[in-house]
Write a structure and sequence with these properties.
TIM Barrel; binds N-(iminomethyl)-L-glutamic acid; 2 domains; 8-stranded parallel sheet; binds fe (iii) ion; alpha/beta
């Protein structure tokens, strides 16, 4: 058991109001925090520690080591609750064509399905590991990873096996797009997703997700797929209202999904439904950016209505090939109407809420010791200095003792 005191923190974001200034960010100036590195390990072999003390700089109890944070901002590591990092190939040409005026359509997913089927397990794992490492280097501590580029039993199961090597938050997204073999028999594909494919994938997943959209799955198919998954113990998530208005949000709320993701095109009824439910609205403005969507999700409207809002990268080769939560925070502030503080909360505590996790997304005593440090004095700099690599891990995913690097 090794303890570390991170001292002389200029601004500590705890997300626990009573630990700070009473705001939702629980902001505390001139602070210190003590972490017990523990000895547990996650599926990816990283160390899990926990926060054991939070207070004023210079007044922490004795710890085995002390790290001088020199006035920087420390916050909970980002909780990136939506990614698709298991895939083969890339779609740079498609992106370039879009930037030259071509529209985005759900069918583009099939390009990646073909490349993913061709890739072997080690190739898929190498890509997923490198993207998750890229996320961690930018301050993300928890990441959700979906299957969905297999669209057949073997490749969906292989994708989830890969996902399990890099995270505990794995999502079965067999219902991403109808597999090419079932182009003329979408109902047959739904039977596969709810039958043999589910049997192979459920043991490897915590969540089940459906892409509800024209060109993907409709409301009735989504209800059936999610209900069957829930009966197998999987929690529900939905890709909802990304490319146009539709039933995704209503289905998500009806089934008590943990999250409705995208939410770019919402009716007043959708906003009301989210606000009066436990379903988090997860905005992924990186996708709106990379698809050149004419509109961004209206986060202001959701927050004003009382919905819980999360932010995530949606890292994937088709619509959002970014691993950067800081970039997403900057976009959410500039384009979705969130204040810089709301965006930081959404990318930490909001992400945790969308994964129904209470151990991450905050830095109260007992929280998982996932700490991110900014080369900046305040969380405001995340949106104020877009594109600048300010965020990096302070602790948690490194071995004890390695945390002092850079200080
Ligand atoms: O979240 N919307 C569906 N799935 C991904 C994109 C998939 C793709 O185009 O490869 C998303 O944006
Ligand atoms: Fe997605």
């Amino acid at each position: 058991m090794t303890t570390t005191c991170y001292d002389r923190i200029g601004e500590l974001i705890t997300n626990v109001p009573e630990l700070g200034d009473g705001s939702v960010l629980g902001l505390r100036r001139d602070a210190a925090i003590v972490v017990d590195h523990g000895d547990g390990t996650t599926p990816d072999g990283t160390t899990v520690g926990e926060v054991v003390w939070v207070g004023d700089a210079g007044s922490a109890p004795d710890a085995d080591e002390r790290v001088d944070v020199a006035g920087r901002c420390v916050l909970p590591a980002f909780v990136d609750s939506h990614s698709h990092v298991v895939f083969g190939g890339d779609r740079a040409e498609e992106f370039a064509a879009r930037m030259a005026g071509q529209p985005y359509a759900a069918g583009g997913i099939r390009t990646t399905v073909a490349a993913t089927r061709e890739a072997d397990d080690q190739q898929l794992l190498a890509r997923a590991r490198s993207l998750v490492e890229e996320m961690r280097r930018q301050g993300t501590g928890t990441v959700e990873v979906k299957s969905g580029y297999g669209a057949d039993v073997a490749t969906e199961a292989r994708s989830l096996w890969v996902a399990r090597q890099v995270t505990e938050e794995t999502t079965y997204l067999g219902a991403h797009v109808v597999g090419p073999e079932y182009a003329d028999d979408p109902d047959g594909y739904v039977r596969l997703v709810t039958g043999e494919m589910l049997d192979a994938c459920a043991p490897l997943a915590r969540w089940i997700d459906v892409f509800v959209e024209d060109g993907a799955f409709d409301a009735d198919q989504a209800r059936e797929i999610l209900a069957v998954g829930q009966a197998r113990g999987l929690g529900a998530r939905v890709h909802a209202n990304q490319l146009g208005p539709g039933p995704g949000v209503q289905v998500a709320v009806e089934l008590d999904a943990a999250s409705a993701d995208h939410c770019t095109h919402l009716s007043d009824g959708d906003v009301d439904a989210l606000a009066s439910s436990d379903t988090v609205a997860t905005l992924v403005p990186g996708a709106d950016f990379c698809t050149r969507s004419p509109v961004y999700p209206d986060g202001r409207r959701l927050l004003d209505a009382g919905a819980t809002v999360a932010l995530a990268s949606d890292c994937n080769p088709g619509t959002s090939y970014t691993s950067s939560v800081p970039f997403v925070i900057a976009l959410a502030v500039r384009e979705c109407g969130l204040t810089p503080s709301e965006a930081v909360w959404a990318a930490t505590a909001g992400g945790a809420a969308s994964l129904r996790r209470t151990d991450v997304g905050h830095l109260g005593v007992g929280a998982r010791a996932d700490l991110t440090v900014l080369d900046a004095p305040s969380h405001l700099h995340l949106a104020y200095r877009p594109g600048v690599p300010l965020a990096r891990p302070l602790t948690s995913t490194t071995a004890p003792g390695a945390s002092a690097s850079g200080f």
